[in-house]
Specification:
This protein has three helices and seven strands. It is of the alpha+beta class. It is globular and about 45 Å long.
Amino acid sequence: MAVFEVERVSSRSAAEVWTRLTDWERHGDCIPFTSVSATMGGAGTVSEVVARTSIGPLHFDDPMDVSYWRPPTGTTSGLCRLVKRGRVVTGWAVLSVTPTTTGCSVRWTEDAALWFIGPLLAWPTKVIAARVFGRLVDNLLAA
């Protein structure tokens, strides 16, 4: 498994940043060769997110269940937990958005494993994933 963490600070409100980070379809605009779809569950919340990565005729899906969902309030952190249940990518991700006096702080922590990557390649995978997801968060916050 390759655990990585991305942290950012934003002058935007926690509610606005939460909305940007959980606009799942927009994630596909920021990650090369990937499109993202979301399935709505009860109470108007998302129950499943699927990221499909395609290069030519080759593709794989990264299905994720939304196992916890708590949007931020003016004083409490928002938290979203995704559980990856694919054949290619397994693991989990936790997104948190915490209000501050000047905006909010963001933390994206993920533990992801690719079935074809062994322990020897876990470190490079972690470095690459942190860079890709750091750019994702930066793009979502800047939009």
